[in-house]
Amino acid sequence: MPVRDIPLKYSSIAGVAPSKKNMRLHGFESSLERDLISLLEFDRNVQSFEEQPVRIEFVGKTGRLHTYTPDILVHYRSDKPPGVWLKPRLIEVKYRATLWAEWATLRPKFQAAVQFAAKRGWDFKILTEKEIRTQYLENVRFLNRYRWVNVELGYIHRLQQLLELLPDTTPSEIIQLAARDAYKQAEYLFVLWHMVALGVVGIELTHKLTMQTPIWSNSHQRTSFIQPTRRL
Length: 232
Known about the structure:
7 helices, four-stranded mixed sheet, elongated, alpha+beta
């Protein structure tokens, strides 16, 4: 649980975001933190995460004791790679402009966080809008709508059969093969995006998703396989 409460702010966006992964609401202090929560919620390498996770004490140049609380602590899956190879990670979320403007004040905090994390076998990383707000985030936002939905197993089995026959295909081609009726095609497309969101269907997520984006069954071993999730 958070070691400090997230205050209400009138100068920036603060609020809570639901997490199915952690079965609770997560507080955030900026829209950039909210976007990171979306990425962590989607990332299948992430086991869990928590906001305002630890309070770090450090001594400043004047000899005064200070405290610093990073934004998020991420725990990766320990049951299969690549999560099993990843250390827990402390993350600070900052806009690039803030880093430039407040670096003299922020640097001692970040140095203390690096040392704090290293002693525990963790990593510490600063993430800005450059790393968070990418086409990958836009695709995650789109797919998250389809992740926690109920679909008929018959549709999934039909699409899986077609994907076995066509290891390399596209959403447009696969739904046209699945059904001739436009209404049925729309239903199959809904189920297909659900399968993509769960990782059952592989796809490249660093480019804009279209009906012509290549997809494949993740039951196939591909030498050119691209992980549908990434580590920030």
